[in-house]
């Protein structure tokens, strides 16, 4: 009897594996012509704006830096004046060459002028005056036990500081009064509802915010929201591009109207990138290139290591090598 049960279990495992579906384009345009260069070490950790290599070197939007972090520190952000901000995931942060003892685990940080904005692993947010070493604002948000790993940094916008929390909110703090002036619930009911994306369309003074399951557009006139299960999201000028779990690539207006979309059955998009057109990196070794108006759609073979971490910054893809997209 036990042999029969073992055989049935084995068949069920094989059936489960064989039923898994993968993106298989009928035809491709061949290899995408790109520039490549070696990367000295594997990526140890990363967020939306940069990464840390195993040897402590840092990747930012400006490329691979010669600057090396101390042992056990991970990159978080770059300050307005170009200083790398990092955390030891314990009780300290690093700003440039200066180590500061904070006393708790910092997972996101931004620094502009003399104001340091912090988000802690326990969902506390804090604004610090660096000149006087004084806390200007601190608020204890409810602890969020289940989070998507794509945590985003606070954002300075004029006289405001935007804190994206781990429980699906954006807390807006005035630098003039050091008080919270607005509390926006982006996705209060989601299981994984931390903010994974926050950007501002400056020309429209419109804030685009996303959790893993929702995207929200916040303008002076209105707040608009739509439900999407997101793989990735990026903003280019006044266009919002998203890739969804069900294989859709969608172009949205700043007001979240669907302008264009394409569906790639069974695709699993790792990341979106934008140069002169949109790119979507697919897990099975493909890259999808879509023109700005979605009239031209091409699939290329794309060589990268699916087992290694991958981050896109500007027109560069960092994986087991550095790839510059055309």
Can you offer a commentary on this structure?
With about 325 residues, the protein is mainly beta. The chain has a domain at about 235-325: Lipocalin. Helices cover about 5% and strands about 50% of the residues. It has 1 helix and 32 strands. It has one helix spanning about 1-20; strands at about 35-40, 45, 50-55, 55-60, 65-70, 75-80, 85, 90-95, 100, 105-110, 115-120, 125-130, 135-140, 155, 160-165, 170-175, 180-185, 195-200, 205-210, 215-220, 225, 230-235, 240-245, 250, 260-265, 270-275, 280, 285-290, 295-300, 310-315, 315-320, 320-325. The protein has a 4-stranded antiparallel sheet, with no helix packed on it. It has a 4-stranded antiparallel sheet with strand order 2-3-4-5, with no helix packed on it. The longest helix has 17 residues, at about 1-20. The chain starts with a helix and ends with a strand. Mean pLDDT is about 90; it is low at about 1-10 and about 10-15. InterPro entries: WD40_repeat_dom_sf.
CATH hierarchy: architecture of the domain at 237-326: Beta Barrel
| Overall pLDDT confidence | 92
Total helical segments: 1
So what's the overall shape? globular
Using DSSP, what is the number of strands?
A: 32
- The largest sheet has its strands arranged as 1-32-31-30
State the helical fraction.
under 10%
Low-confidence stretches: 1-8, 10-15
Q: Quick one: CATH class of the domain at 237-326?
A: Mainly Beta
Task: Indicate the structural class.
Answer: mainly beta
Q: Using only CA atoms, what is the Rg?
A: 21 Å
Determine the CATH topology of the domain at 237-326: Lipocalin
The amount of beta strand, in percent, is over 45%
Largest sheet entry: 4 strands, antiparallel
Q: State the separation between the terminal residues, measured CA to CA.
A: 61 Å
């Amino acid at each position: 009897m036990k042999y029969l049960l073992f055989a049935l279990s084995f068949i069920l495992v094989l059936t489960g594996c064989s039923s898994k579906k993968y993106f298989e384009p009928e035809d491709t345009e061949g290899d995408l012509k790109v520039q490549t260069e070696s990367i000295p070490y594997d990526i140890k950790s990363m967020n939306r704006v940069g990464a840390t290599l195993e040897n402590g070197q840092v990747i930012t939007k400006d490329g691979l830096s010669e600057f090396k972090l101390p042992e056990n520190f991970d990159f978080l952000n770059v300050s307005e004046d170009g200083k790398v901000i990092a955390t030891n995931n314990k009780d300290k942060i690093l700003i440039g060459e200066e180590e500061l003892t904070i006393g708790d685990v910092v997972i996101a940080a931004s620094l502009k002028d003399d104001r340091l904005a912090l988000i802690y692993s326990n969902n506390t947010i804090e604004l610090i005056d660096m000149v006087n070493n004084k806390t200007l604002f601190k608020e204890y948000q409810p602890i969020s036990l289940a989070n998507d790993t794509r945590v985003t940094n606070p954002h300075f916008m004029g006289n405001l500081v935007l804190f994206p929390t781990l429980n699906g909110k954006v807390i807006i703090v005035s630098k003039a009064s050091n008080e919270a002036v607005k509390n926006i619930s982006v996705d209060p009911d989601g299981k994984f509802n931390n903010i994974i994306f926050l950007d501002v369309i400056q020309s429209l003074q419109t804030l685009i915010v996303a959790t893993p399951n929702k995207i929200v557009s916040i303008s002076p006139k209105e707040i608009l929201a739509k439900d999407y299960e997101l793989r990735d999201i990026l903003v280019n000028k006044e266009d919002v591009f998203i890739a969804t779990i069900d294989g859709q690539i969608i172009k949205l207006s700043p007001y979240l109207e669907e302008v264009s979309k394409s569906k790639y059955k069974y695709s699993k998009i790792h990341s979106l990138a934008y140069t002169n057109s949109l790119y979507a990196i697919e897990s099975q070794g493909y890259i999808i290139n879509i023109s700005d108006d979605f009239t031209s759609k091409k699939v290329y073979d794309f060589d990268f290591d699916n087992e290694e971490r991958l981050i896109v910054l500007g027109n560069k893809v960092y994986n087991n090598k550095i790839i510059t997209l055309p």
